[in-house]
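Working notes for the structural subgroup meeting. M.R. asked for a predicted model of this chain before we commit to crystallization trials. I am recording the input and output together here so anyone reviewing the notebook later can reproduce the run.

Input as submitted:
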Amino acid sequence: MIEPELIEIIEGPPPEFQPTMQNWLQSLYEGPEVTEVAMCQLRTATGGDIKERCEIAWEEGRPVRLDFPDEWGMRQQLDVVALRLSEVEEGQLLTIWVAVPYMPVEEESDEEDDGAFFTD
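Returned structure, recorded in token form:
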């Protein structure tokens, strides 16, 4: 089995994943499961090292995964589709696009239930 390169979040709150509205991002990741691409931003002091490790892994054909604690402290991993390192006033900012499992949203229906009680 090929060992993935991990971007590990050791401490702090879970990342906040935001949906991406750009359709072209879906073309970056195709796999056996239906996924959507989401984005999160993380401040880091070692962004250059992280970016270099990811580039090497992708050149070698290895996957890159974001490893993070969820809100219950359980470790989770998501495939990293792309990343960008930028400088901000507070330091380095790592923007990471990940493939998240597709979760269809149930639409609320305006139709009344069959068992609804009506009064005239």
